[in-house]
Predict the 3D structure of the following.
Amino acid sequence: MKRRRFLQLAASTAAAAAVRTTAFASLNHDQEVFLAIRDQSLGIGDPVRVQAGERVRFHFVHAGALGDVHLHLPGHSFHVVALDGNPVPTPAAVDVLSFARGERIEAIVEMNNPANWTLGSLNDSERAGGLGVRVAYADQNGPAQWHPPAAVDWSYARFSAASRSVRPADQTIEMLLEKRPGSGDRVPHWIVDGQPQHLSFQPGRRYRLRMMNATDRAYPVHLPHQCFALTRVNQIPVSGIIKDTIRLERYNVIEADVLRRL
């Protein structure tokens, strides 16, 4: 009964958040910028200096203690080309990048809106506390501008291969993340195939995890020495997306095949 109620809620969440996939031509880049999310900071504080017409390849990593982080650069789009160091099958443009702890994203930004801007968190207090960096165009004066995006448009499904068929799994394991009664709603725990137990994988078998988040916040999912090949994101079939860490959104379902990292 609990699982059925959760899946009904997840289905309604998926219907309310339609995903559109946008392909674009491969882009060359003129410079690379590496930015790490660490606690309440983004990068090392120095501005990112750019030229109008330049294409900048950003390398982001969430290496901090914060939970979810959502980044936006007003007046620009992120053309996502890789997740966790793995090229995505279909690069696509988004206005917002969403990270769980440990995730990495590579995205190319076309610098076609000359001004001074703040690349930073959607959360005003996080941004004011340092989770932002100035993007400064050459020959532009004035303070860095900020305005929020019209919507948070992030979804792994945007980057799926055109063919979304995947090989059948030898075994599907259901994992339900829920809050433990009496923990003050702070400590979630996993229920694996109906039991609070550890995962076990046999060599030579193809395992698919159906991960269901029955809590009201997102959590990172990571398996040491393994990576994930996503097969379904909140009712949407996907293929070709390889991740080391999965951001499991609230009331979301993600299915992924377990792959041993080479």
Notes: The domain at 2-16+161-260 is CATH 2.60.40.420 (Immunoglobulin-like).
